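Researcher: Please translate sequence to structure tokens.
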Amino acid sequence: MRHEMPGGQDGRIEGEPDEQARLSGVFTRMAAEANGPISLRAVRDELGDRGFAGLLIFFAALNMVPLPPPASTIFGLPLLIVAAQLAYGTERAWLPRFVLEKSISAEQFRKMMDWLVPKLVRLERVIRPRYWPFRGKQDDRVIGVIALLFGIVVTLPIPLGNWLPACSTALLGIALSERDGVLLGAGILVGIAAIGVIGAVVGTAGFLTHFLFGWF
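Model: Translation complete:
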């Protein structure tokens, strides 16, 4: 027999966030139930009404996994598409069929979630709606523009150069999902730092190339 506890259904205190409804809960359940390849279409459908924020986090996480340089361009494409639509003000995230049909093996998906979910859980313990600078849903377009800028940096073929901008994009996605202005500011700062680091690396490489080959 099912009993309801004081404060809310099934013992959950009123106002307490539903763990299963959080992104970490959604990804954990998908990993646990996976018995075959996980398509990007399935990921998009599971994210439901948090599509933009969830997809930003998911594709940013893919780009934080250390893979050979071409991978950042491949996985960066759907990140750019999602960010561009958010910047444009599209109501529902759309992805081309060839992207939606891409799949990840259950083992790969679980490994990625084993890496991502604990970090999400730690963040979810401290994030909350606060200091959100925007009032209307259309103002989320500003976040889309910022995410698009960082997404472009993610796709640059710079070894290990996509980790920081991908991290900043993931933070933007989490901030968007929870309307947390503090995390939004942190994501922007990380993105600015990423652009600075990449600029310094590219500038140093250019200087060394000119210095070394200038002798010939």
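Researcher: Any highlights?
Model: The CA atoms of residues 1 and 10 lie 12 Å apart.
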